[in-house]
Every structure is written in C-alpha cells, then in structure tokens.
C-alpha cells in the first residue's frame, strides 16, 4: 500500500507540474512553448477521461478482492489479536524517546528509527505516526511525510499537527492550492495555530495573492507577535512587493528571536542591497 501511495503521489505531482501553470508561468513561455502547452493539455483531456474509467475499475476490482478475502478468511467473525497494555506502554515509551530526538536534538533520522520501533508495538500510535511524518518533512522528504501524515489522520482525522504537516509538505512541493485546503482543515480544529496560518499565508503569497497573504499573517501575529516563522513570512511578503524598508523591520524582529537563521539573514541583506541601489 505504501508503494501504491508513493506512485500515486508521483503521478499527481507529475500531472500538476506539467499541466498546471500559473498566469505568470504561462506569460513567461515563448510562442512555441505556449502552442506545445495547449496541444499537450488538449491531449491530456482525452487521455484523462479514458484512464479515469480504467483507474476506477481497478479500484473497484481491488475493493472486491479485499471483501472476498475478508469473507473467505472469516476475519469479521473473530478478533483474536488485541494489543496488550504492555505493548501500548512500550510504544508510548519509545515515542517519548523519539520525540526528544526530534524536538531537542534535531536528530530526525534517529528519531524515525525509534518511531518505527514504537509502531511495531502499536501500529496506531497516532503521536508516533505524526512525529515520523514531521521528521520526514524536516529532512525534506515531503512525499513520504504526506504518506505518514495521512496514516496519522486515519487514526485521528482531527489531529492538528498532522493536518499542518501535510499542508506544509504540500507547500514545499509547490502544490499551493492543496496546501491552503489542508491548512484550513487544521485551522478548523485550532483557529489559533500560528504554524498553519503561516503556511496558508506563504501559499497565498506564492500564488501572488498578496493582500490575502498579508491578512492571514496579520492574524497569526495578533495571536503571537513573537512567532518566528510568521515574522519572516510577513517580511518576505513585503519584500516581494518591493516594500524593502517595511520588510527589514520584520526580518530584524525575526532575527532577534533566532539570530543564526541564515535564510532570514540573506533576505535582510537582499533588502539592504535593494535600498542602496535606489
């Protein structure tokens, strides 16, 4: 199932990358590329209808096979396996060990190994599922992070951390509209979650929806004026609108919280250079 999931995300990601372009991306194409894009898009439409039918039939066949297996093996008649309290406690113990590696030590690879051990004892330990997804995201393995966030959401569909993790991973994959959808789902659970507000704002900015992006990031800073990610996000939104002096204010506020953040330092230098060139 994991392999199928990974292939599905590769398929969807590839389709979005090739057939979905923003207005700005389209304008940047030359006439030959524009004609090619239109031709490919028209061809994809006919391809889409044919293969959608095949995919739906394949899914139905797979579901029918599972139902038959459930019946043949009489799995609905006897639940002979129960997770023992010992297994539950061991899973929780390992999760806490992995969480420390994740949060305090930034040792994401080792944390994932510990979460995998935790999930052997309790495959539905939602915190281990979420934290494995979060660790994968921090390692830049965004497709894998989405897979594990989805597994956590199967256990707890309203887990704000997992919803945010999926939204943030989708944003990093350039799937900004999808990221906004999942950030909104996280905000339905916790309207004051600054990380989800920041992800939504950044996605709106990358869609060139600057007014909406600023409105959302203002909400986050009203909740927590010292939220590091929201401070640099507002700075970036101001910078891309050529408001360099205003952007500097927020980059400097962010650097007061985290002076060693190189990305923010680089953006501050860009603003200073732009101001000096005027």
UniProtKB/TrEMBL annotation:
InterPro entries reported for this sequence: TPR_rpt (IPR019734), Ycf3/AcsC/BcsC/TPR_MFPF (IPR051685)
Ranges in coiled-coil conformation: none
Keyword Repeat annotated: yes
Ranges of the TPR repeats in the UniProt entry: 92-125, 228-261
Superkingdom of this protein's organism: Eukaryota
UniProt KW keywords: Repeat, TPR repeat
Pfam families hit by this protein: ANAPC3, TPR_8
PROSITE patterns given in the database record: TPR
Descriptive protein name: Tetratricopeptide repeat protein
């Amino acid at each position: 199932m994991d392999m199928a999931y990974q292939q599905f995300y590769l398929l969807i990601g590839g389709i979005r990358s090739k057939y979905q372009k923003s207005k700005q991306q389209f304008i940047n194409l030359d006439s030959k590329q524009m004609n090619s894009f239109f031709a490919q898009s028209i061809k994809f439409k006919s391809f889409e209808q044919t293969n959608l039918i095949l995919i739906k039939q394949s899914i139905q066949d797979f579901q029918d096979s599972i139902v038959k297996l459930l019946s043949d093996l009489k799995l609905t008649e006897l639940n002979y396996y129960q997770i023992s309290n010992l297994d539950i406690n061991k899973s929780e113990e390992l999760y806490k060990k992995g969480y420390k590696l994740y949060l305090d030590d930034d040792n994401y690879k080792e944390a994932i190994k510990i979460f995998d051990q935790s999930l052997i004892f309790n495959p539905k330990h939602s915190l281990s599922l979420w934290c494995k997804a979060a660790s994968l995201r921090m390692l830049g393995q965004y497709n894998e992070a989405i897979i594990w966030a989805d597994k956590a959401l199967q256990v707890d569909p309203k887990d704000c951390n997992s919803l945010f993790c999926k939204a943030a991973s989708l944003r990093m994959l350039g799937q900004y509209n999808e990221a906004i959808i999942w950030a909104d789902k996280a905000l339905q659970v916790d309207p004051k979650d600054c990380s989800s507000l920041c992800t939504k704002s950044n996605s709106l900015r990358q869609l060139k929806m600057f007014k909406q992006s600023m409105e959302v990031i203002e909400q986050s800073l009203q909740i927590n004026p010292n939220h590091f990610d929201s401070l640099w996000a507002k700075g970036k939104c101001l910078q891309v609108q050529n408001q360099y002096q205003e952007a500097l204010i927020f980059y400097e506020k962010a650097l007061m919280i985290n002076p060693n953040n190189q990305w923010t330092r680089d953006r501050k230098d860009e603003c200073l250079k732009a101001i000096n060139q005027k």
